[in-house]
Amino acid sequence: MSTDELSKEQRILRLMRKTLASVVKDATPYGGRANPLSDDTVQDIKDCFALISAREKELSEQLGFNPAQPYYVDDEPPKSKVVSIVKPKRDTND
Questions:
Q1: Sequence-distant (≥ 6) Cβ neighbours of residue 33 within 8 angstroms
Q2: Which of 27, 37, 48, 76 has the fewest CB atoms within 10 Å, i.e. the most exposed one?
Q3: CA 16/CA 9 separation, integer angstroms
Q4: Per residue in 32-81, pLDDT tens?
Q5: Where are the domains of the chain?
Q6: How far apart are CA 21 and CA 11, in angstroms?
């Protein structure tokens, strides 16, 4: 599987996860009302999230990306260097 195919699959999974989360958010009842979704449907949604997460983890491992290890920009070497400019003292003998 090429990197382009993996990237496309990752985009699909991300979009599926976001869409499913939006559906759950829109269907969540407010103010103590009864949930319009059955218990089986809620469990199916949880299973879908679990499958999406598991596949995203597999893809990241194939690409050599470790999501458990945080990435900090501060750990990179700086791209520029700070140079101090000191104004020379004036010769008062002139």
A1: none
A2: 76
A3: 10
A4: 888 888 999 999 999 999 999 999 888 888 877 665 666 666 767 777 88
A5: 3-75
A6: 15
DSSP assigned state of 77: P
Q: Compute the half-sphere exposure of residue 43: CA atoms within 13 Å on the CB side of its CA.
A: 3
- The C-alpha R_g of the chain, in whole angstroms, comes to 27
Residue 7: C-alpha distances to residues 19, 21, 54, 57, 59 (Å): 18, 21, 16, 13, 9
Task: Enter the tokens of residue 6.
Answer: 């993996």
Regarding pTM above 0.85, the answer is no
**What confidence tier does 19 reach under pLDDT thresholds 50, 70, 90?**
very high
Q: How far apart are CA 25 and CA 19, in angstroms?
A: 10
Contact 59, 5 (CB under 8 A): no
